[in-house]
Every structure is written in structure tokens, then in C-alpha cells.
Amino acid sequence: MRRHRFWVVPLLLLAALQIGCSSNPFNPQVRKQKYLAKGTAYFQKGQYREAAIELQNAIQIDPRFAAAHYELSQCYLRESQLQNALNELVLTVDSDPQNVNALTDLGQLLLEAGKFQEAHDRAAAALVLQPDSFAAEVILSKADAALGNLPLATEEIQKAIQTAPTQPEGYTTLGSLQARGKKLQDAEASFQKALSVDPKYLPAHLALATAYFSEMRWADAEREFSAAIETNPKQAAPRLQLALFYLSQGRAMDAERTMSDAKLALPDDPRGYRMLGDYYVRTGQIEKAHAEFAALSQAYPKDVGVRTTYVQILIQQGQTDEAKSVNDQILKTSPGNPEAEIASAQILTRTGHADDAILVLQAAVQKDPKSANAHFQLGAAYDRSGQLDLAEKEWQAAVGVAPGFMEAQRALAAVAMLRNDWVQLAQGGDQMMKYDPRAPDGYVVRGTERLARGDIGAAEGYLNKALEVAPGDATADARLAAVRLAQKRPADAEKLFQQALDREPGSVEALRGLAGLALQAEQPEKALAEVQAQIGRSSNTSGFYFLQAQLLLQGQDANRAEAAAQKAVDLDPNSIEAVMFLAQLQVQRGARDQAIAEYQKALQTNRRAVALYVAEGTAEEARGNWQQAETLDRQALQIRSDYPPAANNLAATMMAHGGDKAVALTMAQTARRGMPRDPHTADTLGWAFYNNGVYGSAIELLREAVKTSPEKPTYHYHLGLAYLKQDDSAHAKEEFQRALQLKPEPAQADEIRKVLAESAGG
Description:
The chain is built from 45 helices and no strands. It is mainly alpha-helical.
């Protein structure tokens, strides 16, 4: 009996399991369906993040669960996570090739991503499964149009219209194709047909307004943009388009009013309430941008995007303490926010801790190698630390990730200009025009490159194009002014420089151009007055005070020049150019200790600025501390081993104080390679050859130094000594006498007289 009962119980259990398998909560099929149902419920409530979590749980159970992948793609679309949505749609189609909705959604995303052939193929696959799919036919038409086949695209959209004659998208797409084919009357009719089907259809309103704009029917375009706003009052796009229209017409006040209205009409839409502030940022109106985003930060404390933009504005203005305070608040409420972490590194860079910033940004790049901003800011930190080659590599990495990243493109263009690499500059301009043809930057870069090469006509063409796409661009105005100068049209140049300043009150380039014109006209008082007037309009621009200091010094007003230079440094302590100018003025009035203190202060925040080490070394040597001068030159060479001024000075110091002659010769050769036309390097290398017994080479270089700078007594003295070594006493005597006529320092004069006497006696 016991044996019989032993077998009966397991058999009963087995039967129970077989009967209840479809409802067993531990069954993977049951669990994944439960997660899908919960995800769908969240999705229907608009709780997309919660839905995504449930759907991801379902996919963990079954990686090929097509329904969950598709539902997850829709969550990502609602959250504007387009790349994630695209990935999920690909997985959906891989698991369920018959899913027409997934195919059309995928085709639409590929179309928006510019992958036109792939979009075409997905839409074609959807049409095989569902020949009357309106969405697939529209995608197919748009893809073929983008691939250059307008006749086929027109046939396809007409077929789509036959399939769904009450859909306004079909008529709007047809109108766009007709507009591309210059059939503007047909296009207008198609757009009007779309609006007759749906008077509120926004794409048709905007397309019709754009068509009117292309025909220069300004009143009709304005009316249509306004109609788009009236029929879609809660949409940001028509308000932005109307503002851009006003800007293209030179109606800046109307544009700002439109963007200000958007802020009031769309208080819950970031595209609306940010519109005016973003415009100020984009056009360089930094003080207005500051005021706008300060107010937005108060009104929308939970909008991290607003606050991160505000931080960037504060950094740009040099208000690093306030920027750090706001940024720390972001990190407190949103730990690990990548933009806030990058901003922390930017603040470190701006406050003279570039080495610390580099460590933070290296970690950011390692964490997210595809972060273009992290690469860009790492490049900026390298640049601030004096490592331009590494900076350039990071900026190249940034545009490799995001070719349309204009800040990185501009940085690379600046490097090309610094190196006079016009080929690289032209390539950079072409890239900028390719990835953002509606921005002025690429046209300005190409215009600058053409101007530098003397192709004035081409430069003018590019710069006019820049002003066509961005009528208010101050940089384009200033560069076009340079073109007018090259064309011998100074009056027109002056108007353009002034126009640039009116549009961008902080444009140092434009103000420098105006001042330069006044100086060319021998009106230094006018130049100074213009600079002082502009300082009254934009008093926080370091470059304006630096320009004022230069003009004051030219006018022999050294005291006021020093005060202006001090103001320039106070506003921008990282302006190496202004620091060195200020210190040189201090040296001129005998305040070497103060100048050295200025260099040391600047080096605390610019530890890799090799020019500062050399300048401080020069000041130290002038007060007799040649050992410290040598140390500073060596520090500069540790940072940049081929820095010509440091190599030149170190070679001269070593020869003057009993250093290794062979090492001095190597240093002098390094300096000469870097500065092949400089008389200082010619003299130093010639003197190094002299000290190493190579007198023929010494004479050749010293002759060049004397020819280039005949007013330097030391050069004549060195050349005279080299002639003596070659037994050319006549030429030696001539050089010694010339050196004495130039009134050298008393000690050197005594030395020359002694050598003269010895050579005469010999």
C-alpha cells in the first residue's frame, strides 16, 4: 500500500502542473506578458519612463519580444530619444519583419537622420506588405526626392494622395516638390489645397509662407506666418519662423517682440519660453542673455537645461563664483549630470586650474567618448595650458563625433589662422557650410581665407553670403569692412565697422578696425575718442581697455596707458597679451619688482604660458638676477622644448656666464629654426658659432643681424670679434667703431675700446 501511495502523489502533482502552466506566475511567457501589460498601461497614462522600465523587464526575459521592442520605441519617441527609438525599431523589425507600423516608423526616423536610401528601402518593404499605406508612400516619395529623383517622387506622392485624399501631408509634400522644381504657382495651389483639407495644418502654413518668402512676397509671407500662429497658438515653430522672417527683413524689434510673446503664450514649452534668451545667446548679446536666463532660472527652477545655459553665460562673462554656485545646485539636484560636470571643469579652466580641469575632462571623455562637448572643453583646457597640439586633437575629435559642432569648428579655424594654414582653414569653412548652411560661420571662414590669399572678389562673395543667411552678423560685417579696405574704399569700411559695433557692442575686431582707420587718416585723437565712447557702451570688455592702453602709449601718455592696461587685466586676468603689455609699461617706469609680481600672479593661473616665463626671465636678468632668468627659460622649455625666445635667451645666458658652449649652440640653433628671420636669433647663433670656433658661419649670421638691425651696438661688436678671428682687422675696426658710435652700455664700451687698442697694437 505504501508503495502505491508513493507513486500516486507525484502523478497528481504532475497533472496539476500541466493543467496550470498557462497561468503559472513563474512561467517566462506569463511574466513577459505581465510586464508588457503594465508598460502599456503606463504608456497610455503618459508615464513613458515608467513604461520603459516595465518594457525593458519584458525584453530581459525575451530579447526577441517584438511587441515590447515596438512599445519601447514609442516611449523613446515621446521622450525625443530618437537614437534609442531607432535602435528599438530595428530590433522590432528584426524580430517581426511583418510589422508595417514599425517599418514606417523606422523609415521616418531614417529619413530625418538623412539616411535616405535606408529610409527608401524600409518604406518599400512596408508597401509590399500593405500597398495602400499612406505613411510608407510619403516616406518613399520624400526619400526619392532627397536622392535626386524628383519625377519618381512626384508620382509616388500623387499615388499617396489618391490613397488618402483627405490627408493634408500629401498635398504639402507635393507642393514642396513643385517648389523645388520652380513650379511656384503649382506649389502654392498644393499648399492651399492642404489648408482647405485642414486649415490648421502647420506644415502647410509654414511651407506656403516659405514659398512666398522665396518669391520676395514679403507681405504674403508675413501674413501666412501670422496665420500659422493664429491656427496653432500653442506651437513654438511658427513663432520662431516669424521672428526669423523679421530678422531677415532687418526688423529686430518686431522679432524680439514675437519671441517675447512666445514666452507669454507658451509658459509650459521650453521652446517657447527659451526663445528670446536663446536668440540673445546666439547673437552674442551676452548682457541681455544674462538678464533673460537669470529670470528664467528663477521662474523655472526645475528646468536643468535653463540653468545649465545660465551657467555657460556666467562662465562667458567671467562670473565664475556665481557660475560655480548655480552649477553646484544643479549637481546637488541632478547628481552626475554630464553637462554640469563639464561646466565644473570649464570653471576650473577659467580660474587657472587647467591641469585639474584636464583630469576631470579626460574622465568625462573616457566615460562618454561620443560627447562632443567633453572633447571640445578638454581641447579648451589643453589650449589654456599651452598644449595647442593636444587641444587641436580634441577639437578634431569633437567634430569627428559631431561635424556640425560649430564651436569646435571655429576653434580649429582659429588654429589654422594662427599657423597661416590656409588649406586647413578652407577645408574647415567648407565643413561648416556643409553641416550648417544656414549659419554664417562657414562663409565667414571661407571669406577670411580668400581675403588672406588676396582673392578679394571671392572673399566679398562669401561674406555677402554670410550676411544673406544672417543679416545681423557682426563678424561678417567686420570682415567685409576689411575687404573694403583692400578695395581702397575706407569710407565704406568705416560704415561697416560701425555697423558691426552697433550690432555687437563688444566687438573688439570692429572697434580696432575703426581706430585703425582713424590712425591711417592721422587722427589719433579720433581713434582714442571712438575707443573711449565704445567703453562707455560696453564697459566690461577687456579688449577695449587694452586697445585704449595701446593708443594712449602711442600718444606718449604712459601713466594713463598703464591704468587702462591694468583695467584690461582686471577684467580678464587670463589675457596674456594684456598682462605682458602692463608689465612692460611697469618696467619702462623702473618698477621691475612690480612687473615681476604681475608675471608671477599671471603664472599662477596660466602655468603653461611659456611667454610669461620668458618675459619674467627678461625682467629678472635686467635687474641682475641672471640665475633666476636661466631657471625661468628652462621652465619654459620644459613646457615647450622648441619655444624660440626661451631657447635664444638661454643660449645667450649660458654663453655670457660660462655655460656649456655646445649646449648653447644647440639652443641657439633651435631658436633660429623657430625664428629664421629674427635678428636676435641671427646674433645669438652667430655668437654661439664664434664661441665654438666656427668663425665663417659666425660672420655670415652676424652680418645678417647687423644688416637687419644696424642700430644694435652688440651685433657690431660681435661681428668685429669674428672678423678678428679671421684676421680681417680692417673690417673688425669698422665694426668696433660703429658699435661705439651707437653708445653701448658703459661696461661694453670699455670692453670695445680695449679690444680696439689691442688689435691696433697687434
